[in-house]
Structure formats: structure tokens, C-alpha cells
Amino acid sequence: MRTPLVLLALTLAWLFGHALAQAETPTPGGTAIVVLGSDPEHLNAAISTGYPIGAVGASLYSALVYLDRDGVPRGELAESWTVSDDDRVYTFTLRPATFHDGTPVTSADVVFTMEEVLAPNHGRFLNAYRNIASITAPDDATVVIELTQPYAPLINLLTVFEAPILPKHVFEGTDPLTNPANEAPIGSGPFRFVEWVRGERVTLERFEDYFLDNALLDRLIYRVVPQDAARSVALEVGEADVVWGFYMPPADLDRLDANPNIEVWKGLTIPSLYFVFVNTDNPALDDVRVRQALMFAIDREQIVEQAQGGLGEVAGGPFGAGFAYAYDEATDYRTLYPFDPERARELLAEAGVGDLTLTFVYDSARGAFAAAAEIMRDNLRQVGITLNVQPVERSVMVERVYGRDYDLSMQSFTSSGDPAIGYHRIYLSAERGANFVNATGYANAEVDELLNAAAGLADRDARAAAYTEVLAILANDVPTLAIFDELSTQAAAANLRGLLVRFDQRDGLEYAWLAP
Amino acid sequence: MSAGRGTKALGAYALERLVNAVPLVLGVIVVNFLLISLAPGDPVTALIGEFPAPPEYVERVRAQYGLDQSVPERLVRYLGSVVRGDLGFSFANRQPVLDLVVQRLGRTMLLMLTTVVLATFVGVVLGVWAARRPNSAVDGGATGFALAGYSIPEFWLGQILILVFAVWLGWLPAGGFRSIRAEYVGLDAVWDQARHMILPVLALSFRYMAITTRLTRASLLEVMNADYILAARARGLSERRVLWEHGLRAAALPIITVIGYNFSFIVAGSALVETVFGWPGVGRLMYDSIFTRDYPVLLGILLLVSITVILVNLVTDIAYALADPRVRY
Amino acid sequence: MAASAPAATVGAAAVWGQLMRQRRGLLGLAMIVVLALVAILAPWLAPHDPFSTSRNAFLPPGSAGHLLGTDHLGRDVLSGVIYGSRVSLIVGLAAAFTATVIGILVGAVSGFFGGLVDEILMRITELFQIIPRFVLALIVVAFFGSGLFNLILVIGILSWPQTARLVRSQFLRHRTLPYVDAARVLGMRPVRIIFREILPNVLAPVIVVASLDIAQAILLEASLGFFGLGDPNLRSWGGMLNTAQGYVQRAWWMSVFPGVAISLAVLGFNLFGDGLNDATDPRLRSGS
What is the pLDDT of residues A352-387, one digit of tens each? Predict the structure, then answer.
């Protein structure tokens, strides 16, 4: 693998001429500072789904696969893999690799981590694990995962964010939740742990025995900057090199963009959809005309522009813009439901609804939701609906929304690379009280059937046909009000090159390098 | 309280106060524990990520953190562990609470002690200055400053300081504990640290400067007409010496008191200021812990702060007793 | 707040001081009156609806129709500041009232009856003084909700100890005075003695503390609002500062004006309480 790459690089250098090649040749060395908005709680990415833990974990650990810039799975620890004809048995062949303490990574580590650490403790891995019948290691370099039924998203759930591999010899026989290695982690990723000053920073350095091309940076520092405004200032004064969209104050983007020393990037990577649940337990909201009226009444463009600081696109459908095969122009919400308060008032009058007061519940930690709530409050007032805004602490929000004690609730869901993982659950009929599934009380047997069929279809065209039918039904029923697709963004020092080489911007920092 | 004087009696007094503090601390624990445990919302939800978790997984997590027991059971267990000096285990950080707090405590203390020292020094100087010429322009200015300082919220002051000195003028860092890029050593490191402290300390100390100024001025005005001061003046001591040696000594008592009794407000203020400036101290930890529903950390911080307040009050009383021989304890 | 406002001045220079201070008290009263008028007349004074959003976000102060500019949602900052006075005033008054009522009850019972009752009540008072008020308020409001009623209740319940101690010490002094003995001899019931006989005589310092409590309650509400824990269905100064945090560089006016409003409101009540303190009892030391 490495030799052909070097050859290729040399050939390219020869082709493009010496000067150009030199200007573009990554040079090793230096320190890059990446901003985190909050302190990671610990550094064991195998027992948590938290964003900052995943961020540091992406550099510390490695996994069987990674997703490239286009979301295509590629081998990381796995040199290659094969899938049986019945789509039920995956066989992975491992590369020779070592942990940061010098011990080799073997199939035993993979099996141990998945069975003993990930399955009981990692939320998203559990999604995959429920379809897994067995994980075995016939020899040191082979891992076999056998499924109970075909499950296409499996590979996407084996990345460093869902399945980072831990050293068995450190964790065996201990409680993974309290193992001291959670504070001073040992992984097999491109960077190794140096120091963690809680609340301030985590320092990593290049791991010289990394099994793929060594990282270019000498040091990678994750710096905790809790205050929004201070993050952009840190970037401007050179006290930080990278701020990801997750931590970006949208209001500062234009200013950062105008700064020649800062490179701002915007784009759609991991699709994340923001929408409003509508609780059909409320008799008024059970009326489809009232739900449609809400769609007409809410100025989604204003929400994108002001609440999201322009970092979004008005949603075209219930699955967002992330998947071409799950989108149909004929049912695009932007043409079906333009901002039209007059039409909303007509529909409400038709439904015989007047003087409606709705409670709007959301997670109080989400600033963008608060701003969106204020815009919706104003929008809905224009059509005679009073919004009673109730931001609540997250666990209370979960209890209330999934216990269906709300009228409207703003939520954001991430697809995790496949609508079947992230979005089907929102529309499939579900029990009251089951968390993070359909909380609207909307139940449609036809939708259930079509979605379940789509999940099992490996063929994209066949899937698209099923989705087109679903989209038509949902576009009429609007159990959720799709508001916008979030745009990813990143602001980074202009001299820091080689960023955004993988699907998730937190991943792949081993390719980053500082231009002189 | 007990009659008599001297270190021995003072020691006995301190001991008595400490013994009396035990039920108080117990009360603090019980009140906080019940309040937090009875709050709506399930901490297990915060421990599990955003995904549809099967019920058996939820129950396993619940059991893992001992949240499957009843509230009284948990309270008894918590009290038992506190007695053994164990403040429990953080849900979110998976670390003993005490370790977690101790790591941050130093930085919060740095902020608070600098504030107390600065506020006391500036406050006393301003107060003395104002008291020397009551009702002069200087006095008016000092009193006006004191009232303003007492009315301006510290978190807003912090925001404005950032706006002016970090954003507009670019003189000082907008937040953080120290520079990350450059690895300073020696004097440079001290200077770097100091630069990061200027704004938060200013924001935090304004209020206490104001209180100290007011108190110093008022106490001085009160004692400056006392017999022994008049006598000192009569002996021909210069006004300056009378003021600094006799006046200030007498005024020291209320100043000590106000600093001591305002301690819990400095704690609250530092929580706000730490948040504004991204200062990685206990206040910031507390704020984060609310949103991760980290009950053990919240309880631990409340308990430690309460104990600190009790101790500071005790020290204040003792200092008061030492400073004023008339006080019998 | 233990930060006492000691008056205490004797002698030549003090006369002047007294006058100065009284002028201050009057100034405070004037500020409170203005605040109250703004709060009451908000619908007529505010140029816009405080919740009305528009596409004209981040207009700087002095823009046509928006004297203090607009925020990130195009809402008028001046109208927000005007309506915010209502929240501050209501929370300040209601919370201070709650605290005063609790404080009087606890202090009166404790001071009048003494003994074990006093011992127990004073221990509880001490407990409330030791638990950091702001921290507890933050936790309670975050977990139990931040509606107006909750805010008032939480701030009120956490603010009474100072009043209780003050009332207790006054009652301890008064309960042995001849007029109280006389009332006892006449067979008056304790409740009547407490409320009809003693209370009116000790009310003056209580009112001083209450007015300082209002200032503290306004400050506490604003601090909670700053942490995003104000009433979400009302425009409040603290809440405005909370959203302003993300726009400090883009729109300084979002931070500056609500903060000035808070400071002035708090200053008004502090000046007034200060003046009142001097006017009622030159030797009084509230707090410590």
C-alpha cells in the first residue's frame, strides 16, 4: 500500500515539475491547536458518544474502517474485507499495527473491544450489535462478524466514532468505565497521548510507529474554549488553528471569512436535519390541515438566515438533502409549502381552529433552537397561534417529548450515513415512551411497510422507488415539520493544510500540516 | 460564649464552633441531596447517548450508577461515603468527584485570592482617601464608585471588559487560563498568566472593592472622632499617622468581617466570571455538570463550598477576636 | 447580602454627609419611580412589539426607527429594554416580598419565643446562609424550570435569612420591654403581641433590608437570565445579555444597553435603601 503511494507521488512530482511539487509537498513538524467547546469528560471513545471525546478519540484510536471524504468506507486497521453471498458474514483481514505502548494490535483486541466494551457501553455501536450474531477471531489477523440478518449499514458503524479499538491487555478483567486508561489513553491511532489539563487542553504527539503513514504534525493540542465569542477571537489572534462548525458562532463567520489569515469552509458533509415534531395526541394537531397550516406559517428562510446564521438550507423533505435516492422533486416542501401566512390562516379556518396555544419544548442547551423558537413565536402569532416556549434541561426534554407531553418540539437528527439508521425511526410508528424514535404519535401502516422494505434493499434504485412513495405520503401528512438541513462549516488558519480529507472533519488530522 | 481569653480559650471556642458545624454540614448534604434527587428528569438519559436504547441497556446503566435504588437508600449510602471522605464518583467524567474538584480548585483559588487581596488593598486605600476629606470631590467620587460597583453585575462587567480590552483595543486575551501556542517558562510564564488574569480579576473584584471602600470610609469616619483618636491628635501626631495607625486599626474589624461574610458571594461571582472568561475552575465545572446531570459533582461542589464558607466564617470570627481585644469569645 | 450599609456618623462633618446621603436616597427614589413608570407604560413607550422579528438584523443604534439598534433576529433593542423592566421589577418586588414575609415570620417566632424553637429556627437560618445561594438557585431553576413564578419563589426562598436575623434581634430586644410585658399581663395572645404590638416597632429596619433585597433579587434574576435561565416567554434584561454573548463583536449594543439598564435599576434600589437606612436610624447596621 505504502510503496505504490510513494511511487505515485514521485511520478506526480516529476510530472508537475520540481517547483510546483515542492510548494505542495507536505512538510512535517509544528503544532496545531484545535478548539473544543467543552472539556471531554474522559478520553475513552469506546464508552461514550460525546462530541469532544469522539474528537480527541479520532486521533488517538483507530478502527477497522474509516469513511473517506465522500462517505465511502475504506480499510484502516482492516487491510481488506469480504462479504458472504448471503450478506451475512463479514471477514476482515487486519494490517500489522501496534498500540502506543508497543504491543501489537490483534484480532483478539477487536473482539474484546466490541464484545466487552463497546456493546455494553457505546450507544451507536449498539445499533450494529443488535444485528450481530457473533464476533470471532479465527487467527491473529482475522475477524469474522456474523449477522443475524442482512444489515447494509454495518460497515458505516465500524469507524473510530462507533468502534474504536482498545488494547485488551489494559482493559481485560477491569471495569471499562473506571479504568485509569480512560484518563491516559492507549490507542493505536496516529497521535499518542501526552498530557491532559482538565478544562484547559489535551496534548497529543505524533506516534512514530503508526501503521499507516505517520502524522505530519509534531503535536496536536485540543484546547477547551467554552465561550462562543472567544473561539473566533482565539483563531484571529493565532491562539487556535481550527474551529469546527459544531463549535462555531455563526455570527462571526463573515468576519472570519474576510480575514486573509483564516480559511472558512462551508459544505454539506454529515447530513443533519432540523425539524419540529408535532404531537398528534393534541386533537387540533391531529388534523392534517392544522399541520399543513404550520408549514405555511413558519418562515423557514428567516430561521436559516437568522437562527442558523445562514449555515443551512431550507429542507426539501423529511429526509433532508443528504441522500439523492431519498428525495423527489415532485414533493419538495419548498414548492409545496412556501411561506404563506394567508394560506395558513385559511387552512386553520377550514379546520375550525382559532385561538390555539401550543407548548414548544426544546433542549435548553441548544442556542439555535432558542432563536428559532423566537422566530416561530412571531410567525405563528401572525396566524393566531400563541406559542408557549418551554426550554427544558435535556433529560427533562427527552422525558416530555417521548412521553408525548408537548405540542411542538424542535429536534435535530443526524443520519449517520444512511436514512435507515438515522431517519426511519422518526416516521415508523412507535410506542409512547420509547426514546429517540417517533414521538409524534403518527402511525401509518403503509409508511411502516415501505420504510421497512427500503431498509432491507441493497439496490439504490429499488430503494428510491420505495422512498418516492413514502415521500408523497409524508409530504401530505407532515407529522414533522422539516425546517432545514444543517451546513457543516470550519474555520482554520490559512497556513494549516491538509484538512477535511475524511467524512467527519474531526477525523484525519494526521494529514494536516503547516505550510511555512 | 465561654468567658476568658488567650489562645487556649480561643482553641476551645474554635473547637466548639467546629463541633456545632457538624449538624449544619449534615443539613446541607440532606437538603441538597433531596433537592437534586427529586428534580424532574432522569440522569440516566444524560448518560446514554441520543439513540433508541433497549430497556435492558437502560436498566443496566441505571444499576451501574446505583440509580436503581430508592432515594432514602441512596442518601444513606451517600452520607456513609462522605463520612469516609469519599464524595462519590462523577457520572459523566468517570472520576472520583474529589479528584475532579481538587484539579480545578487551585485555579479558582488563584482567581479568588487575587481578587480578595486586590479588592481589600484598593478598597482600603480609596476608603481612607475618601475619609480624610469627607464630602470633598474625592469623597464623592469614591462613594459614587462604591455604589456603582455594588450595582453592576460582574458577568456584564466581564463582557464589557472583553469588548473593550480584548476586542476593540486588543491589549489583553479575551479568555482562557494561559497561552497555549507558546510554551512560556520562568518570568514570561508568570507574565502570560498575569495577562490572562487581569480582566477576570477586575470583573470579580469591582464589587468587593466597592464594599470595602464604603466600609473603610464609614468605619474611619466613625472612629476618627473617638476619644483616643482625639487624644492622639492632641499628642501632636500628624494627621496622616493618626489615620493610618489608629484609625485603620480600628477600621480593620468591619473590613475583615465584610470580606469573611461575603465569601460565599465571591464564590458565586467567580462561577459567573469563570463562565464569561472560560476560566477552567470549579465554577465552570459546576456549570458543565448541570447540563450533564452529574449529580455527584454538583453535590460535591455544593458541599465543599458550604464547608469552605463555614471555615471562612470561623476564621473571620477568630481574626475578629484577635484584632479586637475587646471581643470576648 | 451581608454587605451592610452602615451609616453611623457623629460630629461636624456628618451633618453634611447626612444631607448628601439623603440627596442620594431621593435620587434612588426618583430612579425607582422612573423604572416603575417605564414598566407600567411599556406598551405606550416601546416603539415596537418586543417579540416582533424582522429581516433587519444587527441594525446599529441610531438606525431609523431603532434608537438602540436591533438584535440578531431583527428585534428592537429599545423595546426589549423597556419591556425587560417589567420582569426585573416584578421579580425584584415579589421575591423581596416573599423573602421579607418568611424572614419576619421566622425571626419573630424565633426572637419572641426563644429557647428550643429559636435554636432550631436559627440553625435552619444558618443552613440557608451557608449554602451558596446563587449556585443553588441555578441548579433548582435549571432542573425545575425557569418560569416567572419559579424564579420569584426560588429567589424569595433563598433570600430571607438576613431579614430573619434582623427581626429576631429586634424581637429579642423588644420582648423584655415594658410595653410587651404589659400586653402579656393583659392576656394578649402571642400572635397578637407579635404582629400588633412588636412588629410595627421594628418594621423600619426591615423595610431598609427589603429595599436592598429588591436590588439583590433583580441582580440574581439577571444572573440566572444570563445563564439562559430566565422566563423564556418574557423579554428580560438577563435573557437579552444571554443571547448577546454570541454577538459581542458583531453587535456590541446587544450587550451594552440591557447591562446599563440592570445596573441603573439595581443602583436605584441601593441608593434608596441606603438613604432610607440613614433616615430611619443613623446607628443601624443592617446585616453582620
Answer: 988 899 999 998 888 789 999 999 999 999 999 999
Chain B residue closest in CA terms to C25: B147
Q: Chains A and C: how many Cβ contacts under 8 Å?
A: 67
Indicate yes or no: CB of C255 within 8 angstroms of CB of B271: no
Phi, psi dihedral angles at C87 (to 5 degrees): -60, -50
**pLDDT value, residue C20:** 56
* Cα nearest neighbour of A372 on chain C: C73
Query: Which residues in chain C have Cβ-Cβ distances shorter than 8 Å to A378?
Result: 51-53
ipTM of the complex: 0.86
- Asked if B284's CB is within 8 angstroms of A226's CB, the reply is yes
Query: Exposed, middle or buried: residue C43 (CB in 10 Å: 0-12, 13-18, 19+)?
Result: exposed
- Pairing type for strands A272-278 and A31-36 reads unpaired
Q: What strands lie across the sheet with A488-493, from one edge to the other?
A: A191-197, A201-206, A219-224, A31-36, A242-244, A488-493, A262-267
Q: How confident is the model at residue C19 (pLDDT cuts 50, 70, 90)?
A: very low
Cα A206 from Cα B295, distance rounded (Å): 37
Q: Which residue of A has its CA nearest to B42?
A: A395
B60, B100, B177, B180: which to substitute to probe chain A, counting the most A Cβ within 10 Å? B180
pLDDT at A22 over 60: no
Domain residues of chain B, as ranges? 7-39+87-153+205-323
Q: Give the minimum alpha-carbon distance from B41 to chain C in angstroms, rounded to a whole number.
A: 7
Q: B186 CA to chain C: closest CA distance, Å?
A: 34
Query: Closest approach of chain C CAs to the CA of A385, in angstroms?
Result: 14
Using CB atoms, which residue from A33, A130, A178 is nearest to B180?
Answer: A33
pLDDT digit string (tens) for C195-231? 888 998 888 889 889 999 999 999 999 999 998 899 9
pLDDT digits (tens, 9 = 90+) for A27-72: 999 999 999 988 888 899 998 888 899 999 999 999 999 998 888 8
Bridging pattern class, strands A408-414 and A356-363 = parallel
Percent of all residues in chain A with a pLDDT value above 70, rounded to a whole number: 94
d(CA C101, CA A91): 74
How big is the CA angle at C248 (ends C245 and C251), to the nearest 5 degrees? 120
Rounded CA-CA distance A363/A228 in Å is 18
Query: What's the grid cell of residue A447?
Result: 409508511
pLDDT score of C282 more than 80: no
Among A334, A401, A326, A325, CA closest to A362: A401
- B136-179 pLDDT, tens digit per residue, is 788 888 888 888 888 999 999 999 998 899 888 888 888 888 78
Share of chain B above pLDDT 70, in %: 94
Q: Which residues of A touch C74 (CB under 8 A)?
A: 306
Q: What is the DSSP letter of C59?
A: P
- Cell numbers 466514532: residue: A161
> What band does C261 get if pLDDT is binned at 50, 70 and 90?
very high
Residue C281 has what pLDDT? 54
- Touching check for B199 and chain A: CB below 8 Å? no
Nearest to B143 by CA among A263, C21, A8: C21
Cβ-based neighbours of C167, under 8 Å, separated by 6 or more: C103, C104, C106, C107, C108, C111, C202, C206
B187–chain C nearest CA distance, Å: 32
The residues, any chain, with a CB within 8 Å of residue C199's CB and separated by 6 or more, are C104, C108
Higher pLDDT, B246 or B17: B17
CATH entry, B7-39+87-153+205-323, from 1.10.3720.10, 3.40.50.150, 1.20.1250.20, 3.90.1150.10: 1.10.3720.10
Number of Cβ pairs < 8 A linking chain A and chain B: 136
CB contact under 8 A, A374 and C143: no
Residue B47 predicted with pLDDT over 80: no
